[in-house]
Amino acid sequence: MSATAPPLLEVEDLTIEVRGADGTALPIVRGVSFTVADGEVLGIVGESGSGKTMTLLALLGLLPPRVRVRGAVRFRGRDLLTLSEPELRKLRGAEIAVVFQDPMSSLNPVQRVGDQVAEQLRAHRGLDRGAAATRAVELLERVGIPNAASRARSYPHELSGGMRQRVMIAAALSCEPALLLADEPTTALDVTIQAEILALLRELADQLGAAVVLISHDLGVISEMASQIAVMYAGDVVEQGASAAVFANPQHPYTWGLLGSIPLLEGWPPKPLHAIPGQPPTVAARPSGCPFRIRCAHAFEACTERPELLGRVAADHRDRCHLEPAAKAAARQAAPLDAGAAS
Q: Which of 276, 247, 273, 251 is nearest to 343 (CA)?
């Protein structure tokens, strides 16, 4: 991308609200902003309920009508939030594709998997039935499915979890999209298959030159894939920057806790993992100020006010915490919550 070219995807001040039982607007996601350049991988990480999937669904207009979305989502300069449903349908699957975390609930159980891959090609590339079927088999071979011609005639329940996820990836990449959205694509898979799927996603994205937004609760997955990272908690981005910088020098206590949950595979005796106390708040029970303060050992009076997302250690490494960098360094030195993380 040239210095003057706009990013492929630019999300600005994205806010997602639902109506509560008393009619008041409850913000699920608050003021999320990020950019993704051509060929870049952005990882969005956080616990369940942090707003990761809602953010992804909002990008493509897949939220129900009762959910209000504000802000801007510009893809190649076009604000997706202003497009009509027919205009969005032309983009979905063609220029922007999605891999969801549970292929069994995403694939049609009464349609053969080859037909489901071919359907995208017929809808967006105008191929006839025979050409689309031939291309579908080629795509299934490309994602590592053995005996692809035979497997194309299978139904989803006849395939393993890893095979079903490969079918989802084949369908997502069938039209060679510029942007791939992957929502926890390895959550339901065992560790060996997870590694294979991640390697496949990385390889195919590199071949296509596609940008990727990868959502996960697993920092290990994010470290393998992403060049940029956004850490979400209770609907807020609490830390954001280059993955190398965030892993090397995390600035938000929540990020310390996530890193502390990663076990080391070397050394004896093993170091204890540091659990974050408590549970993430619900939308209705989100505390005022910093939403993490009720679980944070370093909270103080200023935390009753919501902090800004600022670059305190570097302009491109921002965090949403009132603690000064020197105080954070001292706190981590005294009681490192990320003791289990890889150095």
A: 247
Distance CA 20, CA 95 (A): 35
Quote the Cα angle for 110-96-202, to 5°.
90
CA distances from 112 to 116, 118, 125, 143, 206 (A): 7, 10, 20, 17, 29
pLDDT digits (tens, 9 = 90+) for 50-89: 999 999 999 999 999 889 999 999 999 999 999 999 999 9
Please return the burial class of 321, using the count of CB atoms within 10 Å of its CB with bins 0-12, 13-18 and 19+: buried
By residue count, the chain amounts to 343
User: CB–CB of 161/193 below 8 Å?
Assistant: yes
Question: What torsion do the CA atoms of 184, 189, 194, 196 make, to the nearest 10 degrees?
Answer: -120
Q: Does the predicted model carry a pTM greater than 0.70?
A: yes
